[in-house]
Design a protein that fits this description.
- The chain is elongated and about 75 Å long.
- It has helices at 19-28, 54-57, 88-99, 335-350, 364-371, and strands at 8-14, 30-40, 60-68, 80-84, 109-113, 133-137, 157-161, 181-185, 205-209, 229-231, 253-255, 277-279, 301-303, 327-329.
- The chain is of the alpha/beta class.
- α1 (19-28) links the parallel β1 (8-14) and β2 (30-40).
C-alpha cells in the first residue's frame, strides 16, 4: 500500500489507557467511527483535537456505557451520534455540548437508547437545528419530551419506542413542518396525542402501535393531507377512530390489526378513494362495515381474518365490487363473509385470476359464540 494511503477504520477506545493510542490512530488512519466505552477521567477526545483529520473524517460517534468527563472536544465533521446505556448526567452534558454554537454543524442523526434512568431531556435538544433524524428507544422512565422539540425545523424522521412511562407528546410537535415519518411504538402509558398532530403538512407515514392506554385519536388527524400510510396495530383500548379519517385523500394503507375494542369504522370510510390496503385482522369487536365500504374501488388488499363478530358485508355490497382486489383474507369469519369470499374466488377463477386467501367459515359452535359476543379460541372450537 502506498504510504500516503490511509485505511478507513472504526476506532474503539476502552477506558483512559486507550486515549494516547487513539491520538496516534488519527495520524495513520482515516477514522470514520469513534466508539467510547468505559470510564475516563478526562475528555478522551481532547488528545485527538489537534489532528486535522479528526475534524474531516469522523462522521459517527458512539457512546456506549460511557462514564467519564463531559465531551467538550467534538469533531466538527460529526454526522451521527449514538448514545446508549449512559446515565442522565452524561446525556445532558453531551447534548449541551452539541448545542454550543459551531459544535456540530453537520449533525443530522441522534439516537438515545437504553438510558434507563433518564427522566427528562434538556431543552438544549431543540438547538440541534441540523438534525434530520431522532430516535428515542428503551428510555423506561422518560415521562415527557421538551417543548423545544418543535424547534427542530429540519427534522424529517422521529422514532419513539419502548418509552413505557411516556404519557403524551409535546404540543410543539405540530411545528415540525418538515417531518415526513412519525413512529411511536410500545409506549404503554401513552394516553393521548396533542391536537397539533394534524398540523404536520409533510407527514406521509404515521405508526402508532402497541399502546394499551390510548383510547382515542385527535380529530385533527384528518388534516394530514400528505399522509399515505397509517398503522394503529395493537392499540387494544382504542374504541373509535376519528370521523375525520375519511378526509385523508392521499391514504393508501390503513392498518388496524388487533384493535380489539374497535366496534365500528367511520361512516364515510368510502371517501378514501386512494386506499389500496385495509387490514382489520383480529378486530374482534367489529360487528359491521359502513355502508360506504363498497366505494373503496382502489382496494388491492383486504384482511378481515379473525373478525369473528363481523356478521357480513353491507347490504348490496360484494367482494366482486372491488375491481383491483388481489388479496382477500377472511379466515375465522362468520359464514356470510366466507360465502361472499367464495363467490369472489369463483369469479376470479372464471377470469383466470388466482384464488383468494380464504379459509373455511367458523365452525358452528364458534360462529354462535361470535354472534353472541363471546370470545373463544376458534382453533379449538
Amino acid at each position: 500500500m502506498h504510504r500516503d494511503v490511509k485505511p478507513v477504520v472504526a476506532l474503539l477506545v476502552l477506558g483512559p489507557h486507550g486515549s494516547p493510542t487513539a491520538a496516534a490512530a488519527f495520524a495513520s488512519k482515516h477514522v470514520v467511527h469513534v466508539k467510547l466505552r468505559g470510564r475516563f477521567k478526562v475528555d478522551p477526545l481532547r488528545v485527538a483535537w489537534q489532528e486535522s483529520s479528526f475534524h474531516k473524517t469522523v462522521c459517527v460517534l458512539t457512546l456506549e456505557a460511557y462514564d467519564g468527563a463531559a465531551l467538550a472536544h467534538l469533531p466538527r465533521s460529526l454526522q451521527q451520534l449514538h448514545i446508549g446505556c449512559c446515565d442522565p448526567v452524561r446525556v445532558h452534558h453531551t447534548l449541551h455540548a452539541l448545542s454550543e454554537p459551531g459544535a456540530a454543524p453537520a449533525l443530522t442523526s441522534l439516537s438515545l437508547h437504553s438510558c434507563k434512568t433518564l427522566r427528562a431531556l434538556p431543552d438544549a435538544l431543540g438547538q440541534l437545528m441540523t438534525l434530520r433524524a431522532l430516535s428515542l428507544s428503551w428510555l423506561w422512565v422518560l415521562t415527557a419530551l421538551p417543548e423545544t422539540l418543535g424547534d427542530l425545523a429540519a427534522l424529517t424522521h422521529l422514532d419513539i419506542s419502548h418509552c413505557r412511562a411516556l404519557v403524551t407528546l409535546p404540543q410543539s410537535l405540530g411545528a415540525l413542518r418538515a417531518l415526513t415519518s412519525l413512529s411511536v411504538r410500545t409506549c404503554h402509558a401513552l394516553a393521548a396525542l396533542p391536537d397539533s398532530l394534524g398540523a404536520l403538512p409533510s407527514l406521509t407515514a404515521l405508526a402508532l402501535e402497541e399502546h394499551g392506554a390510548l383510547t382515542r385519536l385527535p380529530e385533527t388527524l384528518g388534516q394530514l393531507a400528505a399522509l399515505r400510510t397509517l398503522s394503529l396495530s395493537y392499540c387494544c383500548a382504542l374504541a373509535r377512530v376519528p370521523e375525520s379519517l375519511p378526509q385523508l385523500g392521499s391514504l393508501t394503507a390503513l392498518n388496524l390489526f388487533c384493535c380489539w375494542a374497535l366496534p365500528c369504522l367511520p361512516a364515510a370510510l368510502g371517501r378514501l378513494r386512494a386506499l389500496a390496503a385495509l387490514r382489520l385482522r383480529r378486530c374482534t369487536a367489529l360487528r359491521a362495515l359502513p355502508a360506504s365500504f363498497g366505494q373503496l374501488r382502489a382496494l388491492t388488499t383486504l384482511d378481515l381474518s379473525e373478525c369473528g363478530r363481523l356478521a357480513g358485508l353491507p347490504r348490496g355490497v360484494s367482494f366482486t365490487d372491488f375491481p383491483a382486489l388481489r388479496q382477500l383474507e377472511v379466515a375465522g369469519c362468520q359464514q356470510p363473509v366466507s360465502a361472499a369470499a367464495d363467490a369472489w374466488n369463483r369469479a376470479r377463477w372464471r377470469r383466470g385470476g388466482s384464488s383468494a386467501q380464504c379459509a373455511a367459515p367458523l365452525p358452528p359452535r364458534a360462529a354462535a359464540a361470535a354472534a353472541a359476543g363471546v370470545d373463544m379460541d376458534v382453533a379449538a372450537a
